[in-house]
Amino acid sequence: MKPLSKSTKLADVCYDIRGPVLAKARQMEDEGQKIIKLNIGNVAAFGLEPPDEIVQDMIRNLPHTAGYTDSLGLFAPRKAVVHYTQQKNIKGVSVDDVYLGNGVSELITMSLNALLNNGDEVLLPSPDYPLYTASVALSGGTPVHYMCDEQSDWLPDIADIRAKITPNTKAIVVINPNNPTGALYPESVLREIVEVARQHQLLILADEIYDKTLYDGQVHTSIASLADDVLCITYNGLSKNYRSCGYRAGWMVVSGDKRHARDYIEGLNMLASMRLCANTPGQLAIQTALGGYQSINDLVAPTGRLCRQRDLAYELLSQIPGVSVVKPKAALYMFPRLDPRMYPIQDDQQFAYELLAEEKVLIVQGTGFNWPTPDHFRIVFLPNSDDLAEAIGRIARFLEHYRKRHSQ
């Protein structure tokens, strides 16, 4: 029979967070082996549950959630998002500017599908969250990666951003707080990005899903609050701050000067209508979450579980010869560097395979985040302290053997 091939549109689409190394880990689990997973920010898998008031609200409302809602979402949760934008000092947002989605992932893809023609370029950070690169490519666009500087706590290189703008550039993606590095961008850097967008008439796509997962008293600034005259789409949701990944409850907010974007917004509305609506039970969690007790504050406090696990992971990784890591100010991840002189890695996916096979620890290789060289990897610090210490101890043992093999 004639082979049935996947679409050529998928040629440049890659999502290694759930890629071939994970497939190997699943096979090993099927064989009865126990894997310590440091590869994905699936908080519930590590015993971090959503606030009980959210769960109870969804249970009470579930009998009334069988029908479709408005394609943009229910009024009450969208109004709650409007109130949240006011808390974040984002001006001029109405209920009609809020789109609810099946998680932020759906909304990212939707907003890029509505924006891009073949050959249009989008500026993306390197390292990035790979869904953006994949969605740009799937939408017919061309991903162009600007560098983030590890020596400057992983802040975007503004000069590199400017150098990579062409007449085809349509938008710039800003992931703040950042996945995979844990960086938090200061207002001064955000203002520089706004100025670049203003000068070149770029749409800003701002991913702020970790805006409450902040350590050491850090404060998050929404880039949209600095850009009344620049069109901005801000993404957020319940997955991380409210430990509700599986509820698939996210939103995006269109703000700034919309006068020149009426046709684009019409495209957003068209795509929102085509998927009918976001799941209704997830929508009903949003108002309760935003208006309720913010238990994330307890987790990120100095004595909180997430902060303690961050500190432990940073301390243990920093003790390994040839490993350096920028201490995260936010989010759930670290992006350690392996000194190429001590670890001459040619293929970091193969490196992740070998770590998995020898020590049963699952990580994601740095090139999976569109980092250009095979000298980084990402871990989550979500496992409890004992499991985290065990996992990093195994990584240290693997790296010790790796150094010995490659020093001979």
Describe the structure using short key phrases:
408 residues; 13 helices; 38% helix
Structure summary, number of beta strands: 15
Q: DSSP strand (E) fraction? A: 15-25%
Averaging pLDDT over every residue, what do you get? 93
Terminal Cα span: 51 Å
pLDDT under 50 segments (min length 5)? none
* Biggest β-sheet: strands ordered side by side in the sheet: 2-9-8-7-6-3-4-5
Largest sheet: 8 strands, mixed
Number of helices: 13
Helix content: 25-40%
Structural class: alpha/beta
Indicate the radius of gyration in whole angstroms. 21 Å
Give the SSE order as H and E letters. HEHHEHEHEEHEHEEEHHHHEEEHEEEH
Multimeric organization: single chain
Query: What is the molecular shape?
Result: globular
Describe the protein:
With 408 residues, the protein is of the alpha/beta class. It has 13 helices and 15 strands. Strands 2-9-8-7-6-3-4-5 form an eight-stranded mixed beta sheet. It has a three-stranded antiparallel beta sheet with strand order 11-15-14. The termini are far apart. The model has no long low-confidence stretch (mean pLDDT 93).
